[in-house]
Amino acid sequence: MTRAGQWPPAPAPLPAPLVDNHCHLEYPAGDEPRSVEDRLADAAATGVTRVVQVGCEVESAEWTVDAVQRYPQMVGGVAIHPNEAARLDAVGEYDAAFERIADLARADRIRVVSETGLDFFRTGPDGVDAQVRAFRDHIALAKELGLPMQIHDRDAHAEVLEVLDRDGAPEQTVFHCFSGDAGLAQLAVQRGWFLSYAGTVTFKNAGGLRAALAVTPLSQVLIETDSPFLTAHPHRGTPNHPALAALTARTVAEVLETDLATVCATVSETSSQLYGPW
Length: 278
Fold this sequence. Notes:
The chain has a single domain, classed as Alpha-Beta Barrel (TIM Barrel). Helices cover 42% and strands 16% of the residues. It contains 10 helices and 8 strands. It has helices at 36-46, 58-70, 82-90, 94-104, 128-145, 157-167, 182-190, 207-214, 245-256, 260-275; strands at residues 18-23, 48-55, 74-78, 110-119, 149-154, 173-175, 194-197, 221-223. Strand 1 (18-23), helix 1 and strand 2 (48-55) form a beta-alpha-beta unit. Helix 2 (58-70) runs parallel beside helix 4 and helix 3 crosses helix 5 (128-145). The longest helix has 18 residues, at 128-145.
């Protein structure tokens, strides 16, 4: 999986360190792909000093387990992406894949079950049952291991809530790349969940998402890139990288009418509370 185009420049440095709560550094991206080391160095120079690296297929999860040992800036998350769960189930390979993920989730420096949930945008009705089954398996795994869980929710808000209500959400639950409205944000906040905002919140047409951010207390806000995808304005459509979390942080500060240093410090502290020390 790649994203073509020129790498956008790193933004101005932040006034305090920030954590990128969700990225996929195993993917080569750009017309001239940059190394993991280069992307982490650019991030550090901007003030994004730590990242949560997520592998959500078996191969990328194995890469993640190795990478978090080599890069002290990283901790990791592993899971089977909902679309991948439906694909594996269709060919009879889901059970073996989930067993492997469950083993990898026990590895050193793997700190979150991520990303799991429901995605009805790409997977049709035939894959719904497989996605729900996988989501429930990951919820149980997060509870068994005492790990936080990051949810992938695309065009499936009501169904995600239904599963969480039925099975009970893990004690620490994060909506990765939150895409709901203010009503869903308020509901999530009331239940003590965390909402991770990606570059999408900076898009000019994302007024509804900014309204959701406006009702999210800063103590429950996380910031992510989901790189190399979802690049923040004004670089939308180019390859994303962790340094660009700084652009999203500035939008968060504007919407919440809070100074940027406080946003960075609070998000970093919340990240440490969720994922432990790097």
